[in-house]
Amino acid sequence: SLAAQSCAGCGVKLQTENAELPGFVPEQAVVREPAICQRCFRIRNYNEASSVTVDQNEFLKLLSSVATTDSLVVHIVDLYDFEGSLISGLQRFVGNNPVLLVVNKVDLLPKSMNLNRLRNWVQQQAKSEGLRTLDIVLCSAKRNIGFEHVIEALDRHRKGRDVYVVGATNVGKSTLINRLIKDYSDLERELTTSRYPGTTLDAVHIPLDDDKFIIDTPGIVYPTRMTEIVPRGFLQSLLPDKPIKPLVYQLNDQQTLFIGSLVRFDFVEGERQSFTLYISNALNVHRTKMERADALYEDHQGELLGGPSREELAEMPAWTRHSLRVPRGAKKDVFISGLGWIQVNGEAGALLDLYAPKGIKVLLRDSLI
Ligand code: GDP
User: Fold this and answer.
1) Pocket test for ligand 1, best of 75, 175, 220 (most atoms within 8 A of CB)
2) Residue 123 near residue 135 (C-beta atoms within 8 A)
3) pLDDT band at 195 (very low <50, low <70, confident <90, very high)
4) What is residue 203's predicted lDDT score, i.e. its pLDDT?
5) Whose CA is nearest to atom 2 of ligand 1?
6) Does the interface predicted TM-score (ipTM) exceed 0.90?
7) Three-class SS of residue 116?
8) Lowest CB count within 10 Å: 28, 186, 208, 275, which one?
9) CA distances (Å), origin 96, targets 64, 81, 149, 198, 213
10) pLDDT for 247-299, tens place per residue?
11) Pocket flag, ligand 1, residue 242 (CB < 6 Å)
12) What HEC string does 190-246 produce?
């Protein structure tokens, strides 16, 4: 039976249950000879890497052996979910190996955005998370913006070493790896998959022309990101595809915004001011008075307010309240991991309550834009 079989390509145990986890084989492909997982099948037949995911503990275990190698670590983060996709503790695990920070999805921000300012912001945030970066590259893997800078940075910093590519799920790691396979790897040689020493995890090895490899590690799942806890069918509504059109709301205190049925934002106290929402434009926003918000949510979650459906919401963690105080004169974002952020435009300060599913990372940060 399948349970007893391992993939002939990478050695991982085969399973038909979860397409996101290592060893997945679609039901109809179980009879394939030799038995091979979907990922190895794709790599062999289409030269295409796809994501495999692991949780943070497994990943850090996997990563701890990188510290003993001499390599370049490429950490891909999603600009749109920066704090949510940054691997905390990365520095500790990669040892003395240098980290190149590749910030993906720059295409989502307004074109008028100043890239130097953006880079400074990224540098500041990375530093405050304890991450020392050798260099920072901004790009969009999907829209092919800045990819030449990624290649340049690899050429400049690799110095004959292997490259480990690390990142959380949905940051665009596969999209970027697939570009690297086409434009940077040694196509003369066959793409190989191999088991990662000392663990049950496998990693794709992409050959370079100097007998070194780009090693694509599994994507880390952080349950602190909204993208990880919504039903699969809802994910596309959360991930913006086109540049975000910011939504500006002039609010009086004691007013509420619902973002779909996922989040509730209360402007509790402060002068009338504007708030700018940077969220996927596929999401519904509904404004009401705070005093009506409880009843409205009770009656209209999953329907008038937008998705996910009531049944799906019942499967998600219940809301928890984050009380946030925006100091006078500061330009701040209320960041909601995997959803986006709300920029607070007033200078007079504000008292805010943000309700989000328990466990989702919510924080107040210096404005990105
Ligand atoms: P992985 O899980 O890190 O391997 O991420 P994928 O490469 O599968 O991408 C996750 C999602 O982000 C997909 O919906 C991609 O289309 C999208 N994506 C990847 N790169 C970009 C990018 O540069 N810009 C935008 N807007 N979306 C991207």
Assistant:
1) 175
2) no
3) very low
4) 65
5) 170
6) yes
7) helix
8) 28
9) 12, 27, 24, 21, 19
10) 999 999 999 999 999 999 999 999 999 999 999 999 999 999 999 999 999 99
11) no
12) CCEEEECCCCCCEEEEEECCCCCEEEECCEEECCCCHHHHCCHHHHHHHCCCCCCCC
CATH architecture under which domain 47-222 falls: 3-Layer(aba) Sandwich (3.40)
Nearest-angstrom CA–CA distance, 271 and 252: 7
What is the pTM for the complete model shown?
A: 0.86
265-280: buried (b, 16+ CB within 10 Å) or exposed (e) per residue?
bbbbebeebebbbbbb
Atom of ligand 1 nearest to the CA of 51: 4
Q: Is the CB of 105 under 6 A from ligand 1?
A: yes
**Pick from 191, 196, 220, 193: nearest CA to 204:** 193
Residue 359 identity (one-letter amino acid): G
Task: Please report which confidence band the pLDDT of residue 342 belongs to, taking 50, 70 and 90 as the band edges.
Answer: very high
